[in-house]
Design goal:
By secondary structure, this protein is mainly β. The chain is 12% helix and 30% strand.
Amino acid sequence: MRLPLLLAAATLALPATALASPTAPPAPAPGSTTTVTGVVTRADGRWTADDRAIVTDAVIVTDDGRRVTVTQLGGHAPAAAGRPAMTQHTWHAAPRLYPGDRVTVTARAGVTRGGAPRLAAEDVVVLAGGAARFVRTGPTGAGSYLYWPSGCAFVTSTNDTGDLAGDLERQIVAASLAEWNDAVAGCSYMELVAGEPAPDAEIGHDGLNIIRFRDRWCRPATDEDPELCLSAAAAGLTTMIFVDDEDSARDGEIVDADIELNAQHFAISADGASQGDAPCLADLANTLVHELGHLLGLDHTCLDADDPPKLDGDGAQVPRCTETTDPAITEATMYPYQDCGETDKATVSDDEVDAICTIYPLADDPGVCEPAGAGDDGGCCSAAGDGGGAGGAAALAAACGLLIVASGRRRRAPVHRRR
């Protein structure tokens, strides 16, 4: 498994000296400038000692192998000592340094009041971007983004699929949960926990977050409603219910999230093989790891034509999928299209690691791991509306899917489209 950049970079944490490499030459004279070119491997935001500003200490591995630490004004400081996480941004200033970026930085040598040498970044040129900034699901009407209040989210398997032999699908479900857990373990408290199987569970607000294979790609009829069929282009869908109430302290809290996998229009596969007869293979791990990203509160890295404008984790406009070829977007786990038989999304990308570690940082660990309560009253409705619940709370149901559409010899599918 590819080691996520943020976890790999954790081994590079060094004291904040002007030149962190033990074999580096002496620190430059105060007031002089130095220019370095390399890749940002770490960028840690913190409050200054007087609590008036946020600065970022960034480690750059240069082309000649040195590790240089520079300090930049602005950035993101995690929650601490009762204060929420905050970001400081200055427009028209030098670009912010992010892990994965290849940059040329001009920095001025200086010293702290205590005499410790530092390099202060003055000019930043981004030569090649790292991972695209992540996109969260939301906001609610009151501006909140979605989150799980517990330190974990339970995920329950329901049925099996005839497209895979034996219990292979259950092995892949377990491996997909572990893929997320292992990727973020070094910087996030959030964990996906396998719940007890519930063969008869269906999609809906019932306190269970389920994974269901559908040989017929429709929601079954109920006493009140007829059978409701889903988009044939979607290889997977995630339906989420969350609090959407400006008067509630729980605004944005996820209370239920369910995943459906399309075994009617796609042959669910593993390692390029399937017992299904549909012409397009939908690799189970590829689809499921993406859908689990939605369950955790992540949205797509680009917008479809019918999506409203959104901002990414850095406050920038999310581009239209038809208007970007940036591999940091198109190769991310949360990119909304996949090829038949694709397996790239089975590995959590660096951008998604950054997202989960920002939403659920270790410093904010609630110290509890419990299922979402099935007794939480909240209306369920389409993504365009809302419903009332106890105490005036409202909930939205947002359905997303992994689509595969014809395109010449290859078929691509939005991994997820809001319905």
